[in-house]
Specification:
Elements (H helix, E strand, L loop, with lengths): L5 H10 L4 E7 L5 H11 L1 E2 L2 E2 L3 E5 L10 H12 L6 H11 L3 E5 L2 H7 L1 H11 L3 E3 L9 H10 L2 E3 L1 E2 L5 H10 L4 E4 L15 H11 L5 E4 L5 H8 L4 E4 L1 H12 L7 H14 L2
Parallel strand pairs: 1-4, 1-11, 4-5, 5-6, 6-7, 8-9, 9-10, 10-11
Antiparallel strand pairs: 2-3
Helix pairs in contact: 2-4, 6-7, 10-12, 11-12
Length: about 270
């Protein structure tokens, strides 16, 4: 498998004898400048390490895969005027720290912007690729062409319900790494890691041994990240970070990132155990 740009972040972590942390956060919440502050914090500050890869979410009005926490943040971002083009400023912000950014987006937003134009602007901003939760390789001919033309990674998803044929085909279509959703259902923090995740990753390893695998959906603390790091190349965390900013806003100060930084430190330690 071609590790692309984003896969190199996972490989660098492996070279250090650990696994990678992928952090998701949506642009535009609590507002666009505030979300850029969050993204900078997630990249690490001073001597404190941060996430190895940043997954920037693009809020959408019909987020079929998103759980309550991310939906709430996305709705507020849309109400406060976030636009598709704001994602490129977020990408530039992350890239300027030296951390690799990718964008997670529902395909309709890319299609409406123009597939080649979106790929061009993403690459120009310093983006490494796209995670496309509602786009399958069979229907991605435009994205294949645009990602090849602009040198972007294609990160598709598989789930515990994916057949062996689907896993093999999806892994072959990826450039960068493969996103394994550890549970059936929407995003959100959970008390325990999914028992289906190890079996899913084992199936991926058997069918596509060269593929890099990130596992997401449900990871909310360092212990869960450490458990995922036992069998995957990266632990993906989103809702837990968003929840910290929601809590801060509800407490009266959305700019207070104390809780987010504490969680980040716990997760960074988790993937390094």
């Amino acid at each position: 498998m071609n590790a692309g740009i984003s896969g190199l972040a996972l490989q660098r972590a492996a070279a250090e004898g650990r696994k990678a942390l992928v952090a998701y956060y949506p642009v535009g919440y609590p507002d666009v400048p505030g979300s850029l502050d969050v993204l900078r914090a997630l990249c690490g500050e001073g001597d404190e390490p941060g996430a190895d890869l940043i997954e920037i979410g693009l809020p959408y009005s019909d987020p079929v895969m998103d759980g309550v926490v991310i939906q709430r943040a996305g709705t507020r971002a849309l109400e406060r005027g976030v636009r598709t083009c704001d994602v490129f400023a977020a990408v530039e912000t992350v890239a300027s720290t030296g951390t690799t950014p990718v964008v997670m987006t529902y395909w309709n937003l890319v299609d409406r912007y123009g597939v080649d134009a979106f790929a061009r602007d993403l690459r120009s901003a310093g983006g490494a690729g796209l995670i496309t939760p509602d786009l399958v390789p069979d229907e991605a001919s435009d994205w294949f062409a645009a990602s090849d033309a602009h040198g972007l990674d294609r990160i598709f998803l598989v789930s515990p319900s994916s057949s062996d044929e689907r896993i093999a085909a999806t892994a072959a279509a990826c450039r960068g790494w493969l996103y394994a959703t550890a549970v059936m259902g929407v995003t959100g923090t959970r008390e325990q890691s999914s028992s289906m995740a190890p079996d899913l990753v084992a199936s991926i390893r058997a069918l596509a041994p060269e593929v890099l695998v990130g596992v997401g959906l449900g990871i909310s603390n360092g212990d869960q990240a450490a458990a995922v790091a036992q069998f995957a190349d990266a632990a993906i965390v989103g809702s837990a970070f968003v929840k910290q900013v929601l809590n801060a806003e509800e407490a009266g100060d959305a700019s207070d990132l104390t809780g987010l930084r504490t969680l980040l430190s716990d997760l960074v330690a988790g993937v390094r155990r």
